[in-house]
């Protein structure tokens, strides 16, 4: 599947296209299919997202998983600071990245 | 320390106001990201993996207590309670909001700091010896010359859009503590046979994907012509440096392709021309700067003795402290490399504590080192035990300077959008595995980069590690034999790469080969140079 990601313009936070808006959580991402370029152009023009692009991902039992480790780190947060990730209370969260 | 004059302050304040307007226009949609990106980068604001990242300049690594305290306050107020000290003696914040960036720059300007020229194809922050003004072996304090270069290079209209970024270092001792020969221009202040000071110019060094050691192109440029000579070096580069290929755009490629002799010939011709143009700052300006780096009022007749009865303190004293030129004083390196910690990171509380300790014990001065540690340059030996106790209580008392746990590591794939592999977890695992043998292993400089750009200086590590992306999987190459000192050398790749656990095992085996073969007081590097790569390869790859 193709999912869309970028950064919030004001805060820089990593965000994912959920079909309506931009979510902080990759599990909300939807398959943009052949609409990726259209959505990216529209959303960046209205500044609802910044520096956005499409990436490969797959849906498995745990939800949406970006294909590349870099995007999985973006989705979770730094593997060396669990307290700064989106799942600070989950000691196993880092395993999802590797 | 250098204090801003009204020109410096107005320049920085004006830039803050300009950037505040640029951010407003971006947020309101008057300019696109393509238009805004070069503007934010000119103010050190990158967009990294998780958020905006702000890189703050620390000229030649020198900070006052007030500046250091502000860095801690910014970490709390605008970031997530910590900062990361870098190999260019700067500090980076990883979780910056664009809408708050102008306020941060205003806070920085209030303590005579900024983020100008910490990005872009311009002359970056000039680095220097972290022990400048304290080291017994320097011919002169190199910082006034680095400050003169800062003033010359700031907003230099001719050098704001160079073919590629440009890094300079200035030292003033034969013991190179600033990796001087791995810079675009390295300058060593030297004294000639008649006692006159001059600048030896080394041009065309660098790391990255094509590491090169800078050759000396002029062993003695009189100091009243130093800026003119630097200008000539830059002009020739700006004229002929390649702009068609970013991977061949650094000055090291130009010097290599022209050859040292031809590049030098062109520099000398340009230098002769520039001497007729009067570009050299007046000597009075250098004297004005020098006066601000006056030696602190060291006490005389004080004790040179230190009570070594606490063994943990004695180990730290022997490992982390450098003899000082003033009797009764010592230069202290505060390790930002606790066992298993993140190299170069410091919490806001730790940063403020170091600021307070500098105020109370080091004439208000701190230095950031290119090895991502902090130095208190002028500590009275009588204060040393109390100082160490305060550091140790805050997790800053690790005794591992230049040991295997004192690892340089770039932010890597945990933070950096350019990285191919994570650096920090590898550093943490090596530190945890081998720090218990730290004293047995002795001096060993280990450096890790998460990509070929080599921000972690892996080419110059006695042991270097380079993270690469192999079909989407992190892989780590091992290098041996690099060195950044006066006897600069580049590391050699041992062979095929390893996964994360494999690279830790490989480092472990390499240190075992060293310990089995060392003679006398040999360091790891000495043994490697004597016995060569073969025994290490055999042990590592079987």
Question: What is the topology?
Answer:
The complex is a heterodimer of chains A (98) and B (542).
Chain A: E1 2-7, E2 14-17, E3 22-23, H1 36-45, E4 50-60, E5 63-66, H2 69-76, H3 93-97
Antiparallel strand pairs in A: 1-2, 1-4, 2-3, 4-5
Chain B: H1 6-27, H2 33-41, E1 45-47, E2 52-56, E3 62-64, H3 65-78, E4 82-85, E5 91-96, H4 101-109, E6 127-128, H5 143-153, E7 168-171, E8 185-191, E9 197-203, E10 216-222, H6 226-240, H7 251-258, H8 260-275, H9 283-291, H10 311-320, E11 321-323, E12 329-334, E13 345-347, H11 348-361, E14 365-368, E15 374-380, H12 384-393, E16 408-409, H13 424-434, H14 438-441, E17 446-449, E18 463-470, E19 473-480, E20 492-493, H15 500-517, H16 524-531, H17 534-541
Parallel strand pairs in B: 6-7, 7-8, 16-17, 17-18
Antiparallel strand pairs in B: 1-2, 2-5, 3-14, 4-5, 4-13, 8-9, 9-10, 11-12, 12-15, 14-15, 18-19, 19-20
Structural commentary:
The complex is a heterodimer of chains A (98) and B (542). With 98 residues, chain A is of the alpha+beta class. Chain A contains three helices and five strands; from the N terminus they run βββαββαα. Chain A is globular. In chain A, 32% of the residues are buried. With 542 residues, chain B is an alpha+beta fold. Chain B has four domains: 6-109, Sulfite Reductase Hemoprotein, domain 2 (Alpha-Beta Complex); 142-291, 2-Layer Sandwich (Sulfite Reductase Hemoprotein, domain 1); 311-393, Alpha-Beta Plaits; 408-541, Sulfite Reductase Hemoprotein, domain 1. In chain B, a hairpin with a 5-residue loop joins strand 4 (82-85) and strand 5. Chain B starts with 5 loop residues before the first helix and ends with a helix. The mean pLDDT of chain B is 97. The interface between A and B is medium-sized, with 23 and 28 residues.
């Amino acid at each position: 599947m193709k999912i869309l990601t970028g950064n919030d313009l004001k805060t820089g936070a990593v965000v994912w296209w959920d079909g309506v808006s931009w979510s902080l959580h990759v599990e909300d991402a939807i398959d943009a299919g052949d609409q990726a370029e259209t959505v990216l152009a529209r959303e960046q023009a209205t500044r609802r997202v910044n520096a956005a692009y499409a990436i490969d991902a797959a849906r498995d039992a745990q939800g949406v998983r970006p294909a590349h480790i870099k995007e999985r780190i973006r989705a979770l947060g730094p593997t060396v600071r669990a307290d700064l990730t989106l799942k600070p209370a989950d000691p196993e969260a880092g395993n999802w990245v590797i | 320390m250098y204090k801003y004059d009204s020109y410096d302050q107005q320049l920085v304040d004006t830039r803050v106001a300009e950037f505040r307007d640029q951010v407003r226009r971006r947020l309101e949609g008057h300019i696109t990201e393509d238009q805004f990106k070069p503007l934010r980068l000119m103010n050190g604001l990158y967009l990294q993996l998780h958020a905006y990242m702000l890189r703050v300049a620390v000229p030649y690594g020198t900070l006052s207590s007030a500046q250091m305290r502000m860095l801690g306050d910014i970490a709390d107020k605008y970031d997530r309670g910590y900062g990361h000290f870098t190999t260019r003696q700067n500090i980076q914040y990883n979780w910056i909001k664009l809408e708050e960036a102008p306020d941060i720059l205003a806070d920085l300007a209030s303590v005579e700091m900024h983020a100008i020229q910490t990005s872009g194809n311009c002359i970056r922050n000039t680095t220097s010896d972290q022990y400048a003004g304290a080291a017994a072996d320097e011919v002169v304090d190199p910082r006034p010359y680095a400050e003169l270069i800062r003033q010359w290079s700031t907003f230099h209209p001719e050098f704001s859009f160079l073919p590629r970024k440009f890094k300079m270092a200035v030292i003033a001792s034969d013991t190179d503590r600033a990796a001087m020969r791995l810079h675009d221009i390295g300058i060593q202040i030297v004294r000639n046979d008649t006692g006159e000071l001059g600048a030896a110019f080394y041009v065309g060094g660098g790391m990255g994907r094509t590491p090169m050691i800078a050759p000396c192109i002029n062993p003695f440029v009189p100091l009243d012509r130093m800026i003119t000579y630097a200008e000539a070096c830059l002009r020739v580069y700006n004229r002929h440096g390649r702009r068609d290929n970013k991977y061949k755009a650094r000055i090291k490629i130009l010097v290599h392709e022209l050859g040292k002799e031809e590049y030098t010939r062109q520099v000398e011709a340009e230098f002769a021309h520039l001497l007729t143009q009067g570009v050299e700052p007046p000597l009075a300006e250098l004297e004005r700067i020098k006066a601000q780096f006056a030696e602190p009022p060291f006490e005389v007749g004080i004790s040179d003795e230190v009570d070594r009865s606490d063994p943990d303190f004695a180990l730290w004293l022997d490992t982390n402290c450098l003899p000082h030129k003033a009797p009764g004083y010592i230069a202290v390196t505060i390790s930002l490399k606790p066992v298993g910690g993140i190299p170069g990171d410091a919490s806001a509380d730790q940063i403020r504590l170091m600021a307070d300790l500098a105020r109370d014990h080091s004439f208000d001065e701190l230095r950031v080192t290119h090895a991502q540690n902090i130095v208190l340059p002028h500590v009275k030996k009588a204060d040393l035990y109390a100082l160490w106790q305060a550091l140790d209580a805050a997790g800053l008392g690790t005794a591992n300077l230049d040991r295997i746990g004192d690892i340089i590591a770039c932010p890597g794939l945990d933070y950096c959008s350019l990285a191919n592999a994570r650096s920090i977890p590898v550093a943490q695992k090596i530190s945890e595995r081998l720090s218990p043998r730290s004293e047995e292993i002795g001096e060993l400089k280990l450096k890790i980069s998460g990509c070929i750009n080599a921000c972690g200086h892996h080419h110059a590590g006695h042991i270097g590690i380079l993270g690469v992306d192999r079909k989407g999987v992190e892989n780590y190459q091992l290098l041996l034999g690099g060195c950044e000192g006066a006897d600069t050398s580049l590391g050699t790749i041992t062979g095929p790469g390893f996964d994360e656990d494999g690279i830790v095992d490989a480092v472990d085996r390499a240190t075992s080969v060293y310990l089995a073969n060392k003679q006398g007081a040999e360091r790891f590097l000495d043994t490697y140079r004597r016995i060569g790569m073969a025994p290490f390869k055999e042990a590592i790859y079987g």
